[in-house]
Amino acid sequence: MGKLSIVSELWQFLKVRKKWWLAPILIILLLLGGIIVLTQGSALAPFIYSLF
Q1: Which pTM does this prediction carry?
Q2: Span 23-52, average pLDDT
Q3: How far apart (Å, rounded) are the C-alpha atoms in residues 48 and 44?
Q4: Distances (CA, A) of 2 to 21, 33, 38, 40, 43
Q5: Crossing angle, helix 2-17 and helix 22-38, to 10 degrees?
């Protein structure tokens, strides 16, 4: 429940403050974080870590 409230609070912040330019940045950060977590135990990990 805690993580869901953070997402809804962030969504409310974007709506109220009209900070729509933050949305693509957050989406890219979430995608990169997901890629790193999913490939952590695979053979692709050294190649992905070398990108950063």
Answers
A1: 0.56
A2: 78
A3: 6
A4: 25, 19, 23, 25, 33
A5: 150
